[in-house]
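note to self: dont lose this again. the chain is below, predicted strucutre after it. 70 aa total, dont forget to put it in the shared folder this time
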Amino acid sequence: IMLLAKLKWKIRVAFNRDQPLNHYFQKWVRENPEKPCIIEIETGRVLTFKQINELSNKYANLFAVRCFFN
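---
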């Protein structure tokens, strides 16, 4: 619960500073690359911040190549 409260506070601060949320995510990736980011409940599979960042970049590049962005 404490982690969720901390995340909610960081999101609120980000909106007040007009900084994009990915700014904070990238900071977490730099500071905690091997820390668990997502845990799949059904399988127990753990994805780290580094793995999620790599997957996000992969899909963003795919969307850019296929012209999904303006």
